[in-house]
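**User:** You know discrete backbone vocabularies at least as well as I do. Would you mind producing a protein record, from residues through to fold? Write it directly below this note and I will take it from there.

**Assistant:**
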Amino acid sequence: MPPSLRWLLLLLGLGILAAAAAIGVQQWQRQTQRQDLAVAHTSGDPEAGRAALYRYGCGGCHRISGIPGARGRVGPALDGLAQRAYIAGRLPNEPEDLIRWIRNPPGVDPQTAMPELGVEAADARDIAAYLYTLSPGWN
């Protein structure tokens, strides 16, 4: 292979690596922005929310990115929840309404199949914060 072609291929490879790095940085920045907004709107901790979702077994009914084994198909997938207009088809998608729904779904909608799981107020805030960080289609 001629040296000039090697240099061209090396430069091309470096350009591809630089582009991939830039995309990774942009994705990280978007995730950081989502986390900052979620914390500001819910006063919750997204990482504690991830742990709470696992502890309460939410993945038995829902698909949830970042939660081991959360492949349930009884309830809706929860990725992209921040972009939805309504929670459970009933409540405006506002943090306080999401927290209320997480704590007592039958109290909001007596016809819901989602049970009350005894979620503590702090856990509900944390769960809401985590759910608001999820992008659509991460699964």
Notes: The domain at 3-133 is CATH 1.10.760 (Cytochrome Bc1 Complex; Chain D, domain 2).
